[in-house]
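Need residues for this backbone.
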């Protein structure tokens, strides 16, 4: 995998993706979005990959938003297309992946950058990270799912305040309102993400996928309870369920085979 705007590598079943436009604070231009869409497909299709860690190059920014310079002369129709395309191919594609994406927020996560982090399943922030949705300062609103995902994560009151004031919050404030799962020193960011994925990697992969699908269904499907019931039932038909129970009874570690 060779990309212009991403650095990618796979190690110990983890795909590491670094958005690499440091001079533009890793802003998401069209090419970067196209490459992200490709890498998401790769992550989903490759058995070797069990989880993804997404971060930004350098120590200043995770992603400072959509690339403002690219859409300065857009029409309404082009704006709609930008949002629809980005949502479908990148932001929703991450959320709907049944492999966990962990956002390692190493600095500014603003606008489309915070939207990218919010599309991920788990967010870890470096202690100096700052987050916000500043779109209304530009005469815009969030377009990559921000109005929806921020509301889901922190509730309507906090979401409206953050979006219409456009104010940035610190990692500490973000953790307090449930926007990030953990705060760590910058140097420990990737290690913390690896630690979380190391637990997931030991669990039954089909059950992990089914659980993620059911949780996401709570916001994206009309009846998440029904999705859970069906996914729960399917688990009983897997060899990994039999192995998990046998290992418990025999007091040993399970060996899951993703069947
Ligand atoms: N798009 C394009 N370029 C960007 C950018 C962005 N979102 N954010 C930063 N850059 C560029 C700057 O233009 C600058 O480039 P030059 O050196 O060529 O001038 C470089 O990155 C460094 O940025 P600053 O000089 O501004 O750095 P700073 O330390 O003074 O400020 C900052 C940092 C507060 C993050 C500031 O860069 C900033 O406010 N960036 C824009 C944040 C923003 O508004 N994001 C929302 C974008 S709209 C969106 O995302 C829409 C959507 O939902 C789909």
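Answer:
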């Amino acid at each position: 995998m060779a990309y212009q705007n991403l650095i990618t590598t796979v190690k110990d079943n983890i795909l590491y993706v670094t958005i690499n436009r440091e001079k533009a604070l890793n802003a998401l231009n069209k090419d970067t979005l196209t490459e992200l869409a490709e890498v998401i497909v790769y992550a989903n299709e490759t058995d070797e990959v069990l989880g993804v860690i997404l971060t930004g190059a350098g120590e200043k920014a995770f992603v400072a938003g959509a690339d403002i310079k690219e859409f300065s002369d857009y029409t309404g129709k082009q704006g709609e297309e930008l949002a629809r395309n980005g949502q479908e191919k990148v932001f929703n594609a991450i959320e709907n992946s049944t492999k966990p994406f962990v956002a390692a927020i190493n600095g500014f996560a603003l606008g489309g950058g915070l939207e990218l982090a919010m599309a991920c399943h788990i967010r870890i922030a470096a202690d100096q990270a700052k987050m916000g949705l500043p779109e209304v300062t530009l005469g815009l609103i969030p377009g990559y799912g921000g109005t929806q995902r921020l509301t889901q994560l922190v509730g309507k009151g906090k979401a409206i305040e953050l979006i219409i004031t456009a104010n940035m919050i610190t990692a500490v404030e973000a953790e307090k309102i449930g926007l990030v799962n953990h705060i760590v020193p910058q140097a420990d960011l990737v290690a913390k993400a690896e630690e979380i994925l190391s637990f997931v990697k030991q669990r039954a992969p089909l059950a992990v996928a089914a659980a993620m699908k059911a949780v996401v269904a709570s916001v994206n499907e009309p009846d998440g309870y029904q999705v859970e019931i069906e996914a729960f039932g399917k688990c009983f038909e897997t060899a990994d369920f039999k192995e998990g129970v046998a290992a418990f009874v025999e007091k040993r570690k399970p060996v899951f085979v993703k069947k």
